[in-house]
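hey can u check if this looks right to u? its 370 residues, i copy pasted from the old doc so theres a chance i mangled smth
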Amino acid sequence: MDEMKNRSVLLDDESFGPLLPFILDDTITDVDFNGTDLWLTDIHKVKRKADASLITPKFMAVFINKVSMAVEQQFNPANPILEAESEELRITAVHEAVTSTGRAFCIRKAPAVPRYDAKELIRQGYCEEKILTLLINCVFTKMNFVICGDTGVGKTEFAKFLSGYIRPQDKVITIEDNPEWHYAKLNPGNDCIAIKVKKDKSENGERSNVTTMNYTNAIKTCLRLNPSWIMLSEARSKEAKSLLECWSTGIKGITTIHTDNVLKIPDRFMNMIQNSIDADRMINDIYDFIDIGILLRVKEMPDGKSKRYIDQMCFFDREKEKNMVYLLVDEGKFTGALLPESIDKRMKRAGIMDPYAHTYTLTNYPKRMV
């Protein structure tokens, strides 16, 4: 079953049994059973135990068997990892043959609902209002974004939020291996193509003869589809070079990477590109074609909840053959640094006279206004 359009295609509601209330609860993002305990994680990154007696041996056997049948994969000591996904769920199970804690599973939810709202982000202290306004104006000016941070800081969610300000007539192509962006559903009527990257493996683990779409092929295919924006869920490896080459043609985009400082973004890209012959040219291209770096972090609060926030934000620029970084946000605070002259000029050409002003209030994005 290659294409699973929604949860009901993967499994019907009855198949989730006692887990169904957690699946239907939009505030719960993860349902994990480690062989003994049942854990729930909510949108505030708070974890709590649930009643593990719900996961009886009979339910576990039936549930895993239904998942296995739905995706036509074996699950046994010889095939101890079971993976299944729909547009809103990712299920991973591990067989007890390879664990000392018993059969385990994880259900990760990525519903097609907007979890970020501009007013709410400001109220929660995600960033200062003028910084959020600046970033939204950068979307209107059509700049390239790289969002970084550790796992679980909300990189994809913030990328989805920013992409909501793209003009409806600008074609957006999303590229991802697990459905999380949901651009078409979150922005109905906008011009969009969603490309899913698939693994190229046969049942016995050997390379198959079936043509599959990897990240590099997907990016190159996008060039023939006349996009305005390319949204790469995560840059992990050599596809980073193809992404930069794509951005060099004038196509814009948003992607995420794993690093803990915006100043490390150029080095992280260089490590992914892994091409020492073109190193000098590629590092210049990075400063030429990546406009904005954003670092997200999570901080635990006294009430036990977690607060996500923009820890760093910078502009990359290449001026007079020198690679420059302008750090506007550091440790969550506005530094007072001036915008690069090139960025200011681009905004003025786009009709944005004040980068920190709500120049977009007359656009057709009333639900996302600050």
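The chain has a mean pLDDT of 86.
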